[in-house]
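Technical annex, item 7. During the second reporting period the consortium partners agreed on a shared format for inverse folding records so that results from different sites could be compared directly. Each record opens with the tokenized structure and is followed by the designed sequence. A conforming record, contributed by the partner at site C, is shown below for reference.
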């Protein structure tokens, strides 16, 4: 079973993200949670109204990027027991079907692999110039194929872009506090175990699986 977690801080992009996720994510999804860090009760009420089959969890105030993830992971520990979590921020849509059981099968076999993320389009100037997220650091990524599925592995960084990770990750680790938590979390995993790797789904030439649609960040504490 797989929990589906969507992180939001009040952007209307979520009304594109969730229908896209429901259309393109295929697999045994057990619990669907929206974690709302907008600090606005009216936003939570709207989410309840539009997405009645989702659980809406709201922080009491704006916890910021890192604080919201800490809160969401606490919620998952308390409310669910699925062995996998698909993590999704509120400003992505999907380009094609994602078979979640295939991602989980790779994580089952590759215990050193912390997550399998879905590649987005190049976003910043360096990625655009290189031709893509993977192309920017092409030599850092190793392609693997098990006869059925292809994926890439690297020691570059953990990402909160759309992707699957094990429940064990949130049980054994706390998300950092302060600034630049995403980078610091990945560095901490590598320091604890240098064999740790992070994955992208698909072969090197498989292209983009998701599209980033958020033009601006309105959250805090990145």
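Designed sequence (site C submission):
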């Amino acid at each position: 079973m797989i929990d589906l977690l969507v992180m939001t801080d009040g952007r209307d992009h979520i009304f594109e993200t969730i229908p896209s996720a429901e259309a393109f994510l295929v697999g045994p999804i057990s619990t669907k949670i929206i974690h709302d860090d907008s600090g606005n009760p009216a936003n939570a009420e709207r989410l309840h109204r539009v997405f009645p089959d989702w659980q809406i969890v709201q922080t009491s105030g704006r916890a910021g990027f890192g604080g919201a993830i800490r809160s969401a992971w606490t919620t998952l520990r308390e409310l669910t027991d699925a062995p996998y979590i698909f993590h999704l921020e509120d400003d992505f849509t999907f380009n094609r079907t994602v078979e979640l059981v295939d991602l989980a099968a790779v994580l089952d076999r590759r215990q050193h692999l912390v997550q399998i993320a879905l590649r987005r389009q190049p976003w910043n100037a360096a990625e655009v110039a290189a031709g893509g997220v993977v192309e920017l650091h092409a030599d850092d990524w190793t392609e693997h194929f098990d006869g059925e599925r292809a994926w890439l592995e690297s020691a570059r960084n953990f990402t909160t872009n759309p992707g699957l990770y094990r429940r064990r990750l949130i049980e054994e680790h706390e998300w950092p506090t302060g600034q630049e938590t995403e980078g610091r979390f990945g560095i901490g995993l590598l320091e604890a175990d240098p064999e740790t790797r992070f994955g992208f789904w698909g072969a090197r030439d498989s292209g983009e699986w998701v599209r980033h649609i958020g033009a601006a960040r309105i959250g805090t504490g990145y």
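Helices lie at 14-24, 41-50, 64-79, 100-109, 125-130, 133-136, 167-172, 181-192. The longest helix spans residues 64-79. All partners now use this format for quarterly exchanges.
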